[in-house]
Design goal:
Layout (H helix, E strand, L loop, with lengths): L2 E2 L15 E5 L6 H15 L4 E5 L5 H4 L7 E5 L12 E5 L6 H9 L5 E5 L7 H5 L3 E3 L9 E5 L16 H6 L3 H7 L8 E4 L7 H8 L6 E4 L3 H11 L3 H4 L3
Parallel strand pairs: 2-3, 2-5, 3-4, 5-6, 6-8, 9-10
Antiparallel strand pairs: 1-4, 7-8
Length: 242
Amino acid sequence: RQEEAPGRRGRTPAPDALRWDVFCQVIDNFGDVGVCWRLCADLARRGMPVRLWIDDASALAWMAPAGCPGVEVRPWPQAAPVDGPGDVVVEAFGCALPDAFVAAMAARPQAPLWINLEYLSAEPYVERCHRLASPIMAGPGRGLTRWFYYPGFTSRTGGLLRESDLAHRQATFDRNAWRAAHGLGADDTALLLFCYEPPGLPALLQQLLPQAHWHWCVQPGRPTAALDAALHRLPAADQARV
C-alpha cells in the first residue's frame, strides 16, 4: 500500500525537476532513516519529487510527524513501481537495491543516475573514494554504473546536509523552553544516553543513580531497551531508586 506523507497533495514539481528514489533500511538507532529523511525533505523543498522506500517507517511517526510536501513514503518494494524508476536512485549506506528495481533501471532507455550514499567520516580515504565509479558487471544491473558519494568536511568530499534555515533555527533556539518541555529546570543536570548494549552499563548506572537530581534523556530504540535490561540486572535496592 502506498503511503502518502501529510500535506503532499497540491505540490507541483518544477518543470525540469528530476524524480528521485531514495532507499533506506533501518539498521539501528535510526541514524539511517534520519539522514535519508533530511535528504528527501531537502530535495522536495527544492522542487524535486521524491519517493522514500523504507523497510520500517515507524520512526518517522515521532521524527517527522507532519511529513513533508513532495515526499512519498513507501514500503520496501518487492517489484518495480508501475511508473518505473526515477531519474536518480540513491542506495543509502549500501542497503542493496531489490533485484526487480535494478532490472527496471537497466531496462530504461536512459539509465538513472545510481548513487551509493556512504557514511559521514573525517578519515583521509573519503577524499580518495568520493565520486568513484563502480561498473556493474553481472546480475540484473549489468551495464549500469554505481557512483560512490561520501559526505565529509572538505571541498573534495560531498559535504554535509544543511537545511537553508538551519542557521536561523540555531540562532533562535530557546534552550530553556526546550528543557521545560522535557521536564528539566534551567539548572538541572541532564544526561544524554546513546548506546548499543554495553556490558558496563549496569556498573555505570550503579555509580550514577545516587545522583538523584540528575535527569536521564535516553534515545529511542536500542538505547532504551539496553537501559531497561541494565536496570533489571541491578540489585532491588538500586532499582527502587529509579
